[in-house]
Design goal:
Blueprint: E1 2-15, E2 24-38, E3 44-50, E4 53-59, E5 65-70, E6 76-81, E7 89-94, E8 97-104, E9 110-116, E10 121-126, E11 134-139, E12 142-148, E13 154-159, E14 165-171, E15 179-185, E16 187-194, E17 200-206, E18 210-216, E19 224-230, E20 232-239, E21 245-251, E22 256-261, E23 269-274, E24 277-284, E25 290-296, E26 300-306, E27 315-319, E28 327-328, E29 339-346, E30 350-357, E31 363-372, E32 375-382, E33 389-397, E34 400-408
């Protein structure tokens, strides 16, 4: 969404010269025409691991969650967090099966979907929080997602070994037996979610590169196309009520994206995108708190967390004038509480990464991570969720790199 507006800046400087009296006040009003792009949402890096694809993340409350991970095509690890995703402990490990999707109904009962190196898939059930698992299904296809609304009623999605015959099945006895509800050729069924016994959504990707959302209002007996986007694959969908939901996907050019709907999936607004990254799973426990599981094309798995519903925290004004040099300016205000503005300029179109670090050198937020055109930019950082202290912010744009310091005082 782009808008144009006139920004008036009123600046008071105290200047000492031979001509002017000491501390003379100069009032300067600047009127600058900007074109503004709503750019970035408050998703911060929470956890990373090398040589891993983070395939599925699921939380049942603010503290307790599970993470399904694969390394290569046939190695899987399941992790559990009890502190909201800050740290993760290994629950189980497989050397011949990748873990594709995990879902827990409560602290005890959960299901794990897997895929072996030869394309066969399994579904496992745990009744002790994921410490041990019992196989419920082994098939010649891959189980891509599973979701239950109670101890008995659940749905799972499958794709054929070729990858583009999708099927959704329903169980009414806790996953012991399953009945096919819907099959579609040339489409991968990647994620299923139900908000109640009747209303559910299905996230898919066609062999021709179309992402499609299907919606059911009769428990999965029939499905209707609700939303379509070319050039994208939809990997994960999650709703917290009949209206509010999130969708994670990856474009054909390797750009991961998260979108939000407030009308039950009829329309979607992009919140966050990132180059060279697959966004595999999105999960929210309420209007504010959610997690995003991702895998970069360099083999790094990342968990992102949002505490404001993934909503945009800043705007990036782009001036029409092309700067002569690269520059990262001092944030203002500084010190600040809790919001500050960071300005930077690019002499040429560049891949830009603008990151926030704590004093220990840990990356705690990524404000920009994509190609930007030459020009002058401004972005807002909201540090409401961080403690007082000194923080560093670093820009990398082509061969240019610069770091500055800022102080948060609460």
């Amino acid at each position: 969404m782009k808008n144009q507006f006139i920004l008036q800046l009123t600046i008071i400087n105290f200047i000492n010269t031979e001509i002017m009296k000491p501390a003379a006040k100069v009032l300067l009003s600047l009127f600058v025409l900007f074109q503004v792009t709503i750019l970035y949402s408050q998703w911060t890096v929470q956890y990373t691991s090398n040589n891993a694809s983070f395939n599925s993340v699921h939380f049942i409350d603010i503290n307790t969650g599970w993470l399904a991970v694969s390394s290569g095509t046939s190695t899987g690890t399941l992790y559990k967090s009890t502190n909201g995703g800050n740290t993760w402990n290994t629950l189980c490990f497989s050397t011949d099966t990748a873990f594709k999707s995990v879902f827990f109904l409560n602290q005890s009962t959960g299901w794990l979907a897997t895929k072996s190196g030869n394309g066969t898939g399994g579904l496992y059930k745990s009744t002790n929080g994921g410490n041990t698992w019992t196989i419920q299904l082994w098939a010649s296809y891959t189980v891509t997602s599973v979701y239950f609304i109670d101890q008995n009623t659940g749905w799972r999605t499958n794709i054929s070994s070729s990858g583009f015959i999708g099927e959704i099945e329903k169980s009414t006895n806790g996953g012991n037996t399953w009945n096919s509800q819907y099959v579609l050729i040339d489409t991968a069924f990647n994620s299923v979610f139900f908000i109640n016994q009747n209303t559910g959504w299905l996230a898919t990707k066609s062999s021709s590169g179309f992402g499609r959302i299907f919606k059911s209002t009769n428990g999965g007996n029939t499905w209707n196309t609700q939303y379509t986007m070319s050039g994208n694959g939809f990997n994960s969908i999650h709703f917290i009520d009949n209206n509010t939901g999130w969708l994670a996907g990856t474009s054909g050019t390797g750009i991961g994206g998260v979108s939000k709907s407030t009308n039950g999936g009829n329309t979607w607004t992009v919140q966050f995108n990132l180059n060279n990254t697959a966004f595999n799973s999105v999960d929210f426990i309420n209007q504010s708190t959610g997690w995003l599981a991702a895998a970069s094309n360099t083999g790094t798995g990342t968990i992102y967390k949002s505490t404001n519903g993934g909503t945009q925290t800043g705007i990036e004004p782009v001036s029409n004038n092309i700067p002569l040099d690269y520059e990262l300016y001092q944030n203002y205000p500084n010190p600040f509480n809790p919001v500050t503005i960071i300005n930077y300029q690019l002499a040429m179109s560049s891949d830009v990464k603008l990151s926030i670090y704590d004093v220990m050198g840990r990356e705690i937020a990524v404000l920009v991570n994509q190609m930007r055109n030459a020009g002058s930019y401004s972005i807002i950082w909201d540090a409401s969720n961080y403690p007082s202290g000194i923080y560093l912010y670093t820009i990398k744009a082509g061969s240019y790199m610069k770091t500055r310091r800022m102080v948060l005082v609460k």
